[in-house]
User: Fold Methionyl-tRNA formyltransferase from Algoriphagus pacificus.
Amino acid sequence: MRIVIFTQCSWSLPSIQKLVQNDQVAGIVIPNKEVPDRKMIVEISKNLNIDVYSWDGKENQAILKWFEHTQADRGLSFGFSYKIPKEIFESFQFGVLNVHFGKLPKYAGAAPLFWAMKNGERFVTITYHEIDENWDAGRMVLEFDVPVFPGEPIGLLASRLATLSANEIEKALLQLELKTGEIIPANSKNESRPDQTDLLIDWKKQTADQVEFLVNAANPHYGGAITNFRGSEIRILEVSPADVNVTGIFSPGTIVYADATYGIFVLCSDYKYLRLNILQIEGTIITGTKLAALGVKPFEKFN
Assistant:
């Protein structure tokens, strides 16, 4: 088994290391553009003595010749932003396997983990499938569910999924040869990457659970959930449910209690409370207790 890996994402590294141990990696394809993990993947590949091909997603003839040189019989796509065309995936004897952190076709698209977490899913599915002409579709090879821990942010969950997916990667790559399994249909409403609007907290409509789901889904990859306070944007990075014994008339988004010992507590639309643990304001990471010590008071409001 000789494998070419298409990747630009650090989540693929445990699988790469697993396959390198058995001398199965014939080369790595990375996008010919600046992406956050690109330099790290190139450096690791050099250290492992693996050939790296920088591809623009368009010039197919040159990369097809490179594939012949690698003598690879299958491909692995793991966190790769370019759509791999039919000419490319059919050049491999056994096709190309894609690893997707999300149930398909429900969570097809560029940011499945964000949307699953924002929606409060209790489990995330790791899906392995043979790609076809459509995005996140093709023949199912293997899938299994992983529980989401209460309060777990997307960064920690993704790290767990990366390790767990590596445990089954060789099995999934071998099963490419069988050409069995259901065909995953294309989803005509693939979710896009979240924009600023998707990251906004709506204190009047979102429950305490929904705010917490959004905060966890946005930390750290999307910089936290967004709200406004005293006319400035604030990013909330961590919250926790809280019981608060207060009296008074408050509307959702209002700070009901604040001090330098216990921190800041906010009322949500379902009249449950969240403690704001970690925030980012004006480029500074700050705790709720520190913010309270700097003068934040009850009855002030997030918008």
Residues 154-167 form the longest helix (14 residues). The radius of gyration is 23 Å.
